[in-house]
Amino acid sequence: MKKYRNLLTLSVVVFVGSLLLSFVTVQDQKDPAPWDVPEKYVKMENPYAGDESLDRVGKILYIKHCRSCHGNNGEGDGPKAASMKTKIHSMTAEAFKKQSDGVIYYQSIIGRDEMPNYESKIPDEEDRWALVNYIKTLK
């Protein structure tokens, strides 16, 4: 009899828990505000533009630091993306691609809000540009 009582109690707990969870909704993510990129970065030139020897480094850095939020292809669909308060826009979108390399550098390395700063995690300037170059190849 005790076995059935435990089973009944467990069933009630699961049912009530499921019922309560049905009222919980995923928080809507807000659209990010436009980036306020300092003029220094807007005009910054990429000294490694087109340097294919950095492709492997850029990809490794992307996998290590970016993929968990931005996803395999830069679509903003990584495993951590759903837990963010702000939507992650696609790096493959035309609007993103039209940005200068310096702007992408600023967004990727300096960051803001939920986008972390990577200056200490990627201290080498060549590596930073390798990451920018790789991001620009995402399709």
Task: Describe the 3D structure.
The structure is a single chain. This protein has 139 residues and is mainly α. The protein is 47% helix and 0% strand. The longest helix has 20 residues, at 2-21. The radius of gyration is 22 Å and the shape is elongated. The relative contact order is 0.18. This is Cytochrome c, mono-and diheme variant family. GO terms for molecular function: electron transfer activity; heme binding; metal ion binding. Residues 53-139 form the Cytochrome c domain.
Brief rundown of the structure:
The protein is mainly α. The chain has helices at residues 2-21, 39-42, 55-65, 67-70, 94-97, 101-110, 125-137. Keywords: Heme, Iron, Metal-binding.
